[in-house]
Amino acid sequence: MEFVSRPVYSCSKEHLKIYQTWFNFADSDRDGRLSGNDATNFFGISGLTKAELKQVLAIADTKRQGFLGLTEFITAMQLISLAQEGHELKSDLLKNRVDLESSSPPHMEGLDALMEKGSNHVSKGKSETNGK
User: Fold this and answer.
1) Each residue of 57-68: pLDDT tens digit?
2) Quick count: other Cβ atoms within 10 Å of Cβ 85?
3) Nearest-angstrom CA–CA distance, 76 and 35
4) By the 8 A CB rule, do 36 and 66 touch?
5) Which contacts (CB < 8 Å, 24+ apart) does range 9-14 have?
6) pTM higher than 0.70
7) Cβ–Cβ < 8 Å for 89, 55
8) CB-based contacts of 1, cutoff 8 Å, min separation 6
9) Contact 70, 20 (CB under 8 A)
10) How far are the Cα atoms of 19, 41, 98, 104, 127 from residue 22, in angstroms, in the given order?
11) How far from each other are the two terminal CA atoms of the chain, in whole angstroms?
12) Strands 34-35 and 67-68
């Protein structure tokens, strides 16, 4: 099965700035890419199930590199947002959507508080990161 994602320009400049900030925050080792660990920890605060997050990563990592660059991260954020809106995660979901520019970034539980504290990574299982 081939996965197709929309290019980054399908999000607004405002959202691109938000995603860049989030990407920089989630990239704990500052190497310009999110490893599976960083991605899993960061995406975990979205409230999606592990199965849904696995699907997000499978769709976003189109080159099967095992990490996400900024472009793939934005794709993942758009997928998470659509999943939070109730859409089924499928490989062609972004290709068939024409209103991504009007779609909001996903809700990431506790992210604002983490960023205000200056914490440079998201730890899995902490109550402040997942709202539980």
Assistant:
1) 999 998 888 899
2) 10
3) 13
4) yes
5) 10/78, 10/94, 10/100, 10/101, 11/74, 11/78, 11/100, 11/101, 12/101
6) yes
7) yes
8) 91
9) yes
10) 5, 13, 24, 14, 19
11) 36
12) antiparallel
